[in-house]
Amino acid sequence: MDNNELKNNPSLEDATKEINKGQEKYDLNDDRRVKVLTPGALVRKRFFRNKVAVVGLVILIFMFAFSFIGGILSPYSQDQFFYRDDIMQKEVAGVSVSKDFRYEIKDVTKFPPLAQANVAIATAMGENKAEVDKTVFDIVKVSDDFYYIERAGELVAYRYKDIISTAKGDDSFSFEFKYEALKAKAEAASGFTFDGKDYILDEEGDIILEGNVVGYVSRYIVNAVMADFAISRELKEEMIETVEKGGGVVDYTPKDEKLEEGEKVQYFIEYDPVRDYYIVKQEKSVHKYDTYSWPGKGHILGTDRYGMDMLTRLMYGGRVSLLIGFIVVIIETVLGVIMGGIAGFFGGWVDNLIMRLVDVFYCIPSMPIIIIIGAAMDAQAVDPTIRMIYLMLILGFLGWAGIARLVRGQILSLREQEYMTAAEATGLKTSSRIFKHLIPNVIPQLIVNCTMSLGGVILTEATLSFLGLGVKFPFASWGNIINDVNNTFVLTNYWFIWIPAGVLLLLTVLAFNLVGDGLRDAFDPRMKR
Amino acid sequence: MRKYVIKRILISIVILIIVAFLSYVLMRCLPTSYIEGIARAKSQQPGSKSYEEWMEQLTAMYHMDKGLVAGYWGWCKEAIRGNFGDSWYYTVPVLEKFNSVVWLSFVMGLISFFFEIIIAVPLGVLAARKQYSKTDYAISIVALAGISLPTFFFASLLKLVFSIKLGWFDLYGLIGRDYYKLSPFGQFMDKANHLFLPIVVLVVLSIGGLMRYTRTNMLEVLNADYVRTARAKGLPESKVIYKHAFRNTLIPLVTIIGGSLPGLFSGALITETLFAIPGIGYASYYAMVAGDIPFSMFYLVFMSVLTLLGNLISDVLYAVVDPRVRLA
Predict the structure, then answer these.
(1) What is the pLDDT of residues A293-333, one digit of tens each?
(2) Rounded to an integer, what distance in angstroms lies between the CA atom of residue B178 and that of residue A414?
(3) Which strand (E) or helix (H) includes residue A165?
(4) CB distance B15–A376 less than 8 Å?
(5) Is A360 close to B19, i.e. CB distance below 8 A?
(6) Which residues pair with A271 in a beta bridge?
């Protein structure tokens, strides 16, 4: 039927269209009616008919995009640390109430330690005399918290609870001065005279000489925890005031040049019953690594233990995992094809030798060996980059036996086919007979095998990295990202650290296996019923 | 038959000798400073031998002073007598440590192997019978997912769900904290409780392989002419499947199952380490990481023996089970 004629006759054209719906209009005996597919196209068609395999392929494409393009698009780099400013309450000082008697002794020879003990007993018994080696000490009670001790009318020591210190904070008051000041405090006197000068002792315990505060007497001991934390008198007073109330917040405006006028510093005072001690805390902002921050703006999957962006680490980790997988599989395949090809083609003693070698490599326990080498490299502190190269070489070198066996088996059967006899008859070189005529026929099985073993290699690498014996920090790998789960706290609380990496790993390996399976079915239709 | 078995055994022994030699070379290739470092660290432990003694012991045991071949020969002579030296890490003879840990691994392996078979084989047969059905796809994907699951990830997930969220099992270890107060039955249950998760991990990760293997072989058999004949003569489907097809599928299954029997002793390196189950895998992992050369060397050879034995058993079984196989 002629096309022109059809066009001239609309009704006939419609009818034919109806018949040929979806088909091109060729003669019945036209060769073009038979759609000829190349073997490649056939395989492709069969592969794409397999939905599961296509899903695998889609996952793989996503993984590659995620790892190789994602890393470029990510605003962060692989080893970029993030920091955050945290407000932390830091203990800066402590306030305690003096509850024990202290002794101030003029001369130890006149008031030996034994006398101190006896005085303590005597006061507790309510006596006013203590005896040591027939020497009598008179104990004079001024108040419950202040006693002085005389030996034959001479003041030798006093025991007291209040703390006396100079305004400078040093210990330059003399024995006598302290005695006068403490006595005045104990008697609740408003002042005392010492060395011809009149000192005023106010209610707050300040010792004032001619309008200047020279020292204070107080029941509270304020200690700075941090060496660089200076406690001024005003601050001390405010703290003590708060302590008397049982704790609270102190708003203090320090006279510090570093701080602006009127800027307040807050101190939080709490009672710590364990230490019987009031703790003074100050809020300070701390600049530190932004570790384990929850997913949110800026970090879609949070940050890891070093304060690095999780999503970026996952992208670079995927890159490392996939690259290692590919390189190892390439090494394996090259070695395997060469060895298997030689063995299968030549046969005889060469075959025997190589196959025994294959047996040996089959039998080598690869995981323990890599663990041993990894531990040795740990001890030698091998550079992470070199380590990664070693890892790939070792994995590749230990893994070729399976491929060699496969290639040999295929070649043994192909070798006997007619086309090989023909190739030999045309006088082709041995190398071209192996690599041009035999190997291409093994390639379908090789591709299937490589796809499957890619998944396996990625798993092995991840396991090693998980154990800390594979890819090392600063490089990311899915395995060493999950490694953090060894910390039970991370396992329990931070799912975003390890679950995404595990899911990616699982999906990738699964996708390689699915695609491998699909390819095998596509290459080998005999398995189809 | 006998001739074949003997030949295979002899070849296996030759391979074992070569593999052991390679392991020995690996141990000799470890940097000396590494070994010295370990010896030094060992000697600093309280009550330990002196550094020189440790070095001397290693040198004597591994014939470091001799050449590679002579040294290896020396090691072989000791090993054949069953002397693998003293473990550095465990400070007991290697075989003693081995003996104390291997049985736990074996029990664990045996239980998971049992479950693996009773789960994987029926599912594989089912998948093959209903090829390209939803059941088949579901089973195949589950099998593949099992193969693709990273052990450590799966174990961590199980721990999170069953140990932390539900609190049914302990996170680590073989025995609970009040193990010694329990009755013998309670002690048994305590161990069983601790072994539950590791066994689940082992089973889930291993069923995939066997399931796929069963499915492939079953499919092959179902495509065979005699199955078509059986159907053509009107046998009920169940009889076709279980009497004609499945029995023939058993041939490859028995060989592969027989071949994996020695592997029961090999322990599960990763799983045992993750759950801190003191089996052979756990023991050897820590020995290897700590650079315990005597134990590592023994473990490598032991693993090679298991692999060879497995191959040998499966090859021999293949010949025994399938009368069609003629041995050259």
Answers:
(1) 777 777 777 777 777 888 888 888 899 999 999 999 999 99
(2) 66
(3) strand A163-166
(4) no
(5) yes
(6) A278
